[in-house]
Amino acid sequence: MIGSTPLKNMNNLTHINRLQQLHLHIKAANTGAPRTLAKKLCVSRRNLYFLIDKLKLYGAKIRYSRKRKTFYYEDDDFDMITTLKVEIIHKGVAKKIYGGTTFSKKYPSVLTTYTEQT
């Protein structure tokens, strides 16, 4: 891990997880007001808008309805799928300790966790 620290990597994982959670809330159009959504994601309102801007950079067309008090996607063309795999290799034996998370239109939430497979 040249130029990287475990804490920075954890922050990256937290960031990705928050993007996933934000995406799911927006997809379901049940975010609530910005302050409420920020609390759900355990971020400040400023960081909430940073995450929203990040999704917009990826091509998401996000709008906010004051009447319904929710963020929503303007069209149904945007989706986000994230996969993570962590394997520990010790003395030539690989152990998969985390299989990944996938979020998609077809399967709203699929979580696979492996504890100790060789």
Question: How would you sum up this structure, described in words?
Answer:
There is one protein chain. With 118 residues, the protein is α+β, with helices and mostly antiparallel strands. The protein has two domains: 6-73, Arc Repressor Mutant, subunit A (Orthogonal Bundle); 81-118, no CATH class. Helix content is 37%, strand content 21%. The chain has a two-stranded antiparallel sheet with strand order 1-2. The protein has a two-stranded antiparallel sheet with strand order 3-4. A hairpin with a 7-residue loop joins strand 5 and strand 6 (110-112). The radius of gyration is 17 Å and the shape is elongated. The model is unreliable at 1-9 and 102-118 (pLDDT under 50).
List the helices and strands and how they pair.
Layout: H1 6-28, H2 34-41, H3 45-57, E1 62-65, E2 70-73, E3 86-90, E4 93-98, E5 100-102, E6 110-112
Antiparallel strand pairs: 1-2, 3-4, 5-6
Helix pairs in contact: 1-3
Overall CATH architecture of the largest domain = Orthogonal Bundle
Structural class, by secondary structure, is alpha+beta
Order of helices and strands: HHHEEEEEE
Radius of gyration: 17 Å
Briefly, what is this?
With 118 residues, the protein is an alpha+beta fold.
Task: Name some characteristics of this structure.
elongated; Arc Repressor Mutant, subunit A; 2 domains; disordered C terminus; 37% helix; single chain; two-stranded antiparallel ribbon; alpha+beta; 118 residues
